[in-house]
Amino acid sequence: MFDKLDDLVERLNKVIEELNDPSIVNDQQRFKSLMKEQNDLTPIVEKYKEYKDTKQTIEDSLEMLEEESDEEMRELAKEELSEAKNHLTELEDQLKILLLPKDPNDDKNVIVEIRAGAGGDEAALFAAELFRMYKSFAESNRWKVELMSVNENGIGGFKEVVFMISGKGAYSRLKYESGVHRVQRIPATESGGRIHTSTATVAIMPEAEEVDVEIDMNDCRFDVFRASGNGGQCVNTTDSAVRLTHIPTGIVVSCQDEKSQLKNKDKALKVLRSRLYEMELAKAHDAEAEARKSQIGTGDRSEKIRTYNFPQGRVTDHRIKLTLHRLENILNGDLTEIIDSLTAADQAAKLAKMQDV
């Protein structure tokens, strides 16, 4: 591990040296690549420097204990030594996590698809609540939310909603949200006071660039139709909505949020590209089935990952057996504790796997 860290220190010095060369401004692509590398390496190198400083503190404290006869000074040295040893262990763990292979998609924007599952109108209302939850979480992180497609049920629920969240690290924070979300509560229409269980499916897909997925336009069929709306200015009087069918896979994407047919077509292609990219990622994951088992969930849309129980005011994530009794805050976008816990559990699983190799 330390040989690798020494190599990274050397690499960062070379990157900084190249960035300081005035001629680099003539090659913007290279400049951007080096800046990204510097941003990736700096936290690791800084943590390694802190590790080496702490190790030096331990050596200095041990030396003082050998040479110092004053009891008060010896006690101070012992205290400093104990603190430094504990800190060194923490730093080692942090360095191991920083050295874990980075998911190349972590810094990407995400396309989120939420679909109502079992439960009819109640499931559609829950899908709308999940949309608002992720929207609030995104806004608290100062990320941009852009609606791409929505299919409403007429009473405030969503049969399906597709939206993009743009911002640094969006995928790294939201990638564990894929799967089946379950809600347990008494619907407003239930006269007998019985608890109903409904579900919604969430898919989190990294936004795919054109270089990630090449789409042959001959494989695509575009149909245009008149967008539906709630009345007034929302109703389009032209055929601006777009339905895109990808013939080889049978994937169908509809977009009608924009008043421009061209913009809806562009959004539909973005969604298609991300779905195709997700399919490729799933194939790669399936090829590493054992690795997937060791991680937090498979990201499979059929996997039940979380339950939102209204009568008990609790949210339970089944993958890490985490239960929190603050349902209202979570549905208002306070997902930080859940996401931090999922990230930590995933890192611990990856570290354990690395140590087994």
Notes on the protein architecture:
With 357 residues, this protein is of the alpha+beta class. It has helices spanning 2-19, 28-67, 71-98, 120-140, 170-174, 261-286, 289-293, 327-331, 336-356; strands at 110-116, 144-152, 158-166, 179-185, 196-206, 220-225, 241-246, 251-255, 304-309, 314-317, 322-324. Strands 2-3-1-5-4-9-10-11 form an eight-stranded mixed sheet. A hairpin with a 4-residue loop joins strand 7 (241-246) and strand 8. Helix 1 (2-19) packs across helix 2 (28-67) and helix 2 packs antiparallel against helix 3. It is flat, with a radius of gyration of 26 Å. 25% of the residues are buried. Mean pLDDT is 85; it is low at 230-237 and 288-295.
What's the total number of strands? 11
- Record the strand order, biggest sheet: 2-3-1-5-4-9-10-11
Shape category: flat
**Percent helix:** 40-55%
Count, helices: 9
Q: Spell out the helices and strands N to C.
A: HHHEHEEHEEEEEHHEEEHH
Radius of gyration: 26 Å
Poorly predicted tracts of residues: 230-237, 288-295
The major sheet is characterized as: 8 strands, mixed
Mean pLDDT: 85
Separation, N- and C-terminal Cα atoms: 14 Å
User: What proportion strand?
Assistant: 15-25%
* Assembly level: single chain
Concise overview:
The protein is α+β, with helices and mostly antiparallel strands and about 350 residues long. It contains 9 helices and 11 strands.
List the helices and strands and how they pair.
Elements: H1 2-19, H2 28-67, H3 71-98, E1 110-116, H4 120-140, E2 144-152, E3 158-166, H5 170-174, E4 179-185, E5 196-206, E6 220-225, E7 241-246, E8 251-255, H6 261-286, H7 289-293, E9 304-309, E10 314-317, E11 322-324, H8 327-331, H9 336-356
Parallel strand pairs: 4-9
Antiparallel strand pairs: 1-3, 1-5, 2-3, 4-5, 6-7, 7-8, 9-10, 10-11
Helix pairs in contact: 1-2, 2-3
